[in-house]
TrEMBL record:
It comes from the Eukaryota. This is PRUN2 protein. Residues 1-140 form the CRAL-TRIO domain. One of its GO terms (biological process) is apoptotic process. It holds the Pfam family CRAL_TRIO_2. GO terms for cellular component: cytoplasm. It comes from Haliaeetus albicilla (White-tailed sea-eagle).
Amino acid sequence: PGYHGEGFGAILLFAACHLPDNSIPQYGYVMENLLRYIVGTLERMVADRYVLVCLTGAAARGQIPSFGWMKRCYQAMDRRLRKNLQAVIIVHPTWYIKVLVTLSRPFLSPTFSGKVRFAASLRELSQLIPLEPTHVPEPV
């Protein structure tokens, strides 16, 4: 949704409530193309440091991508994008997401694990980065 001049650079917002439910036909095909779209968009948009904000509020459990899909997203990014990623902030994390992230930490690089942060509310997020309320989808 914008840029943050105090160390983060670009701020990219990802709202899980807009993802397809995993029960739709050809879910794997849709998510594979979404992965390509996300990585392609990052490659075009990100020239320097950036932060990724994942809004999980208002998303059904079937809309939350699997750990394997998220891992493929990270692996599909080239070294420049992985290096320039300053933080991944997960807003409104459910216990399922917290457990998933906690259990996956031993399998992730310590550098990436240190970039993952949780924000329990939009107010807490606003203390971490400047965020206009108009950038947050209505369901969240």
